[in-house]
């Protein structure tokens, strides 16, 4: 998936990946996509909840992958307003 900015939140525990993502989403333009990479399993539900309650973002996709025997969670969030 194409993205405009990446936030590396690996090693951050809940709620920091979502806190950092909220800060970053305000730094990009409407229509742009933020890719967030996290090692926090709870970030999957956190990003889903954020997308349901926030008025200025859309959760486009979530993926998981293995990296050095660790599970990595990738979230693509688009700023809508």
How would you portray this structure in words?
- The protein is α+β, with helices and mostly antiparallel strands and 81 residues long.
- It has a four-stranded mixed β-sheet, with helices on one face.
- It contains two helices and four strands; from the N terminus they run βαβαββ.
- The protein is globular, with a radius of gyration of 12 Å.
- The mean pLDDT is 95.
- The protein has one domain (5-79): 2-Layer Sandwich (Translation Initiation Factor IF3), CATH 3.30.110.40.
- It starts with a strand and ends with a strand.
- It is 26% helix and 40% strand.
List keywords for this structure.
Translation Initiation Factor IF3, 4 strands, 81 residues, 4-stranded mixed sheet, 26% helix, alpha+beta
Structure summary:
By secondary structure, the chain is of the alpha+beta class. It has helices at 16-25, 43-53, and strands at residues 5-9, 33-38, 57-67, 70-79.
Here the CATH topology equals Translation Initiation Factor IF3
Structural class: alpha+beta
CATH class: Alpha Beta
Read across the widest sheet, the strand sequence of neighbours is 1-2-4-3
| Unreliable runs | none
CATH superfamily: TusA-like domain
């Amino acid at each position: 998936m194409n993205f405009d900015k990446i936030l590396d939140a690996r090693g951050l525990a809940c709620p920091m990946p979502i806190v950092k993502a909220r800060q970053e989403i305000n730094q990009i333009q409407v229509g742009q996509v933020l890719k967030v990479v996290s090692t926090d399993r709870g970030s999957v539900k956190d990003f889903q909840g954020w997308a349901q309650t926030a008025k200025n973002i859309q959760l486009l996709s979530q993926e998981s992958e293995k990296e050095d025997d660790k599970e990595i969670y990738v979230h693509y969030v688009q700023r809508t307003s």
